[in-house]
Amino acid sequence: MRYSISELLDIPKLQTILNSLYEVSGIPSAIIDLEGNILTGSGWQDICTKFHRVTPSTEKFCIESDQKITCGLQDHQRHVQITCPMGLTDTATPLIIEGEHLANIFTGQLFLEPPDRGRFELQAERYGFEEAAYLLAMDRVPVISQDKLDQNLSFIANLTELLAIQGLTQLRSFEVQECLRESEERVQQIIACAREGIIVYDRGLRYQVWNRYMEQMTGYTADQVLGKLPQEAFPMIEHAGLTERLHRVLAGEAVPSIEFSFQLPVTGRSGWCSDTMAPLKNAGGEIVGAIGTVRDITEAKQTEEQLRQALKMESVGRLAGGVAHDFNNMLTVIMGQAQLAKMKITPDHVLWQALDQISAAALRSSQITRQLLAFSRKEIIEPRPVDLNQLIEEARKTLLRLIEESIALVCRPEADLWKVKMDPSQVDQILVNLAVNSRDAMPGGGQLSIQTENVHLSRKSCQYLHDAVPGEYVQLTVSDTGGGMPPEVQEHIFEPFFTTKGLGKGTGLGLATVYGIVRQNGGFINVYSEVGHGTSFKIYLPRISGETAAETHRRCTDVRIGTGTVLLVEDNDMVREVTRSYLEELGYRVLVAQTPEAGIAICAAKENKIDLVLTDVIMPGMSGNDMVQEIRSLLPEVKVLFMSGYTADLVARSGVVEEGMHFIQKPFDISTLSVKIEDTFLSDD
């Protein structure tokens, strides 16, 4: 048993009862636990305490008597009665609670008949007791008949039973208290460890419980809020209607969960949380307060917003991909025919300016398509190791033409800048879009700064950068001294078609394009802006591991005349004709096929010696890639250049975006085609 007899019984009260019993009956008594501790004692006789138990020669008789009593009690005897060698009688009754022997009740140091005085005179002489004092102590020992003793033992038995019941009641009380304490501790542990905020309000709507989650979320400890009203601790929650909802809960009304934004006064942290409330009832079903559960859903909201943004971009990307093929085919024809026509006339011809405008419009249209594909991350790109400092320097002249004379362009390149891997044309797009954005933000002039540096991001620093992961990056910073942006504008600047510019002054694709390019290349972008203090875009691009040298970016500006036979396979009549004209202008002999099957048949004819196959990727009946596999079974050494106006995901499904394969994106001009063909002929595949 976990409790001692002294914990289960009211010992002082029991002592009073036994004292009264001695006064009435003259029978001494004592309660002694199993460890020998005397809990109560009434009527102890001097003949034992001052003579028999303090003299070694007689103490042994007392010890023998004690042992006989103990043995009898251990044998589960209801009563044990003995007469010791010194002539005194003792009895004992076990005290048992719930079947467990916890203590003994002793009655004794009495005579069952008047004592033989002569015997005690002899005992005084034999053991050296002072006779007068010894005989006086003998005279004080009560003389009880056996019948009276039996009656006393019956009373003791009833008293023992009563004590056992009292002890059992006390034991049950202890057990209930222990269960309640353990239950309360478990509840407190559950509340403390819960991964959501748990709040309890009393009828006066004052805080009664404030768990650890709420402390971590708000920065307020329980000591700071308990006993306060919600509006006293958090004035900003009034706009969420918290007090009104609590009153409805106390009235027994069911209230739905809500989500609301917050900004904490202690930490300054802002975000979103969800709040659920229910009535707190007592055992009688009466509402005595309210229980609230709170969750910080800021991260979930951010994820939801990112998903919404991704779905929006995906939808626009699907739209762009759906029209890209036909649109780029038409642009190929427009751009090609205008360029071929210009090759037939001189600059002073009356049609030269018109053709020049047609070419410029077609080129601009192709850039719009490319912007759509860039932010939807479906643009066909050719990543390569590049030096950002070199590309920025090459783009300087273009940027100076874009910005006003009142805007100063300042470049701060870091020496020994790490290399990154991306398509150089995409770097141009990033710089141009950010420069135009900064120009429009500084109508009265200012400074446009472009800076590069090597940075290492630790896990801790990534906590403060959106979309960041630890690693080594090249940081490209484009800053202006314009009017800046308020926070509500910054939240939307990377969304497609979002613009603050007037009608006809912006498409809303510039920053969305930058965002798409950066994410497509494994990087991330953060914006820092304050109204009246300008804006800074910081772009982080992953560093290339190893010592890979940056490749020189060759711009397609010259027409390369070639020789040999080219098999052109294209299902669109107009694209086929303009591409054929390009190839013939470049000096190639051209064989034309409208379908993949026709292309295979031309290659199978022994009289046709073919050096290069220029084919569309996706055509009715058979893909360009499947056709090439058939042709290479006939002509293993033939070179292949693929072309397409489709987006990268559709082209990849056709199996052509692989290492070692050559690809040209529609629309293209004659100079770009000439360089691609030359690269294909010079390759080792």
Task: Note the topology.
Layout (H helix, E strand, L loop, with lengths): L4 H4 L2 H15 L3 E5 L4 E5 L3 H7 L3 H19 L5 E4 L5 E9 L2 E11 L6 H11 L3 H10 L5 H48 L3 E6 L4 E4 L1 H7 L3 H4 L4 H4 L8 H9 L7 E6 L6 E12 L5 E10 L1 H45 L9 H24 L8 E3 L1 H15 L4 E6 L7 E3 L1 H18 L4 E12 L1 H4 L8 E10 L6 H4 L19 H11 L3 E6 L5 E8 L22 E5 L3 H13 L3 E5 L2 H9 L7 E5 L7 H11 L4 E6 L3 H6 L8 E4 L4 H13 L3
Parallel strand pairs: 12-14, 18-19, 18-20, 20-21, 21-22
Antiparallel strand pairs: 1-2, 1-5, 3-4, 4-5, 6-7, 6-10, 8-9, 9-10, 11-13, 14-15, 15-17, 16-17
Helix pairs in contact: 5-6, 12-13, 12-19, 13-18, 14-15, 15-18, 20-21
How do you describe this structure in short?
By secondary structure, this protein is α+β, with helices and mostly antiparallel strands. The protein contains 23 helices and 22 strands.
Can you put this structure into words, describing what you see?
- By secondary structure, this protein is an alpha+beta fold.
- It has five domains: 5-173, Beta-Lactamase (2-Layer Sandwich), CATH 3.30.450; 194-301, 2-Layer Sandwich (Beta-Lactamase), CATH 3.30.450; 305-374, Helix Hairpins; 380-542, Heat Shock Protein 90, CATH 3.30.565; 564-682, Rossmann fold (3-Layer(aba) Sandwich), CATH 3.40.50.
- The protein contains 23 helices and 22 strands.
- A five-stranded antiparallel sheet has the order 2-1-5-4-3, sandwiched between helices.
- A hairpin with a 4-residue loop joins strand 1 (29-33) and strand 2.
- Helix 12 runs antiparallel to helix 13 (352-375), helix 15 (424-441) runs antiparallel to helix 18 (510-520) and helix 20 packs parallel to helix 21 (624-634).
- The longest helix is centred in the N-terminal third of the chain and has 48 residues, at 146-193.
- The chain is elongated, with a radius of gyration of 50 Å.
- The model is unreliable at 549-557 (pLDDT under 50).
